[in-house]
Amino acid sequence: MIENLRSSFLAATLVAMPAIAVAVEEAPMTVTGATTVTVDESLELFDQGVAFVDVRKPSDFEAGRVAGAINLDLNDGFSQESLLEVAGLQDPVVIYCNGAACLRSSKAIAQAVSWGYETVYYMRDGYPVWDIAGFPVE
């Protein structure tokens, strides 16, 4: 089901894009020290009460987010201190951004791991696929 959602989202995105060749760097599939999770696996973590951190810019966050997520904009607000206010070093945490074309979550996760976070989940598909799946949003 999620694979079909990804394909539909990609197709809709491509149709909406102008016919200009643009090189887009894709987010890595994995980040050393973290566990990459699908949106379905992320929903299980959500149901367990794991903290979700959205590292997108505030305007993206305000337009829609995983229900209960905390916004720590990677470029203005994401720090060791701010992350510690959300989750301790041994606490699980899910970090996400805008999906495969967004590098913010992979960068934030690399930082969190370097700060000693032990249970970091990388929701690579990000908010767009979470929303398309019909999972809880605000």
Overall outline: globular
User: Into which percentage range does the β-strand content fall?
Assistant: 5-15%
State the CATH class: Alpha Beta
Uncertain ranges: 5-21
Q: In summary, what is this structure?
A:
The protein is an alpha/beta fold. The protein has 6 helices and 5 strands.
Key terms for this structure?
40% helix, alpha/beta, 138 residues, five-stranded parallel sheet
Give a structural overview.
- The protein is an alpha/beta fold and 138 residues long.
- It has one domain (2-132): Oxidized Rhodanese, domain 1, CATH 3.40.250.
- 40% of the residues lie in helices and 12% in strands.
- The protein contains 6 helices and 5 strands.
- The protein has helices at residues 2-16, 39-47, 58-63, 80-86, 104-114, 126-132, and strands spanning 34-36, 51-54, 70-71, 93-96, 120-123.
- Strands 1-5-4-2-3 form a 5-stranded parallel sheet, with helices on both faces.
- Helix 3 links the parallel strand 2 (51-54) and strand 3 (70-71).
- It is globular and about 35 Å long.
- The two termini are 23 Å apart.
- Residues 5-21 have low confidence and may be disordered.
How is this fold's topology laid out?
Elements: H1 2-16, E1 34-36, H2 39-47, E2 51-54, H3 58-63, E3 70-71, H4 80-86, E4 93-96, H5 104-114, E5 120-123, H6 126-132
Parallel strand pairs: 1-5, 2-3, 2-4, 4-5
